[in-house]
Amino acid sequence: MKSKKVVSSSNSKDKPVNIKKFNSDVEIAHDFAFKCYKKFKDVVKAIAMFGSSTKNLSTPKSDIDIIIIIDDCTVDWDDELVAWYREELAKLLASEKYPKELHINTVTLTAFWEELRAGEPLIINVLRYGEPLVDVGGFFDPLKVLLAKGRIRPSAEAIFTTMERSGAHLGRANAHLLNSVESFYWGMVDAAHAALMSANVVPPSPENISELLEETFVKKRLLNKEYLEFFNDVRKTAKEVLHGDIVRVSGKKLEELQSKSDDFVHELVELAKVLIKDQKIIKVNYKEF
């Protein structure tokens, strides 16, 4: 039967900021773990450091990965307790000005155990490379030994889930690449509209931009015709993506489209600046309510 732990919140407004000097990631992690356990000792079962810091791959720009395993077996985590934990953890992190950023992951004991039993790769790697900083139950090191002996193996369900997840990641990545093509196009549309408006031309719908740019700027030798070709090429590709005619885009093609859109936007923005250089611009800042 679960029993709720009642933990009182302390006032941290006047708490002095940590100015201690640290010589390594391990010292920082130990300092945080000590203070974290002191505050949350009724609910924390283990705190461990993992990631690049434990693999000797850390750089001055690396953050420090720490996992906090909380007890959800004997502690009833209602909304009030969850909110208190999040608030107090945020206060603790804000009060300690460590020279490196801490990346804190909180996981329940039940979730940790279930994912470990299933052989979930992330938890397996946390256990394989993790260094316990606080281990109230004394289970972290024994589990590391069992893993080293091959006694913890992935389940068929975990293998299947991981395979499915790999495809989902690739699908999202490809969708981001396709979306970037549309972003290149709309960046060019905005730049073209800005230039045309600077020439006192009412901004047209996108399909008429190329024609108006030629009439307004190219024929007057204010703009090189190659920029129209850039716009038309990116527009054509964006429309093919939108209609599903293109479902994949290569890195080489993406770089080409980015280069054309960058050059186009830069040229049209500079042209607009020249056209409005003598105009007084009034910026209006609206208050948020």
What topology does this entry show?
Layout: H1 25-40, E1 44-50, E2 64-70, H2 79-95, E3 102-108, H3 109-118, H4 121-129, E4 131-135, H5 140-148, H6 156-198, H7 209-218, H8 226-242, H9 251-275
Helix pairs in contact: 1-2, 6-7, 6-8, 6-9, 8-9
Indicate the structural class. Answer: alpha+beta
Helix proportion range? 40-55%
Tally of alpha and pi helices: 9
CATH topology of the largest domain: Beta Polymerase, domain 2
Count of strand segments: 4
Largest sheet: 4 strands, mixed
Oligomeric grouping of the chains? single chain
User: What is the topology, as strand order, of the major beta sheet?
Assistant: 3-2-1-4
What's the pLDDT, averaged over the residues? 88
Query: Which outline best applies?
Result: elongated
* CATH class bucket of the largest domain: Alpha Beta
* The CATH fourth-level homologous superfamily of the largest domain: Beta Polymerase, domain 2
Number of domains: 2
Beta fraction:
5-15%
Top keywords for this entry?
Four Helix Bundle (Hemerythrin (Met), subunit A), about 290 residues, four-stranded mixed sheet, disordered N terminus, Beta Polymerase, domain 2, 9 helices, alpha+beta
Task: Walk me through this protein's architecture.
The radius of gyration is 28 Å and the shape is elongated. Helix 6 packs across helix 7 (209-218) and helix 8 (226-242) packs across helix 9. The model is unreliable at 1-15 (pLDDT under 50). The chain folds into two domains: 25-154, 2-Layer Sandwich (Beta Polymerase, domain 2); 165-275, Four Helix Bundle (Hemerythrin (Met), subunit A), CATH 1.20.120. It has a four-stranded mixed β-sheet, with helices on both faces. It is an alpha+beta fold and 289 residues long. The protein contains nine helices and four strands; from the N terminus they run αββαβααβααααα. Helix 2 (79-95) links the parallel strand 2 (64-70) and strand 3 (102-108). It starts with 24 loop residues before the first helix and ends in a 14-residue tail after the last helix.
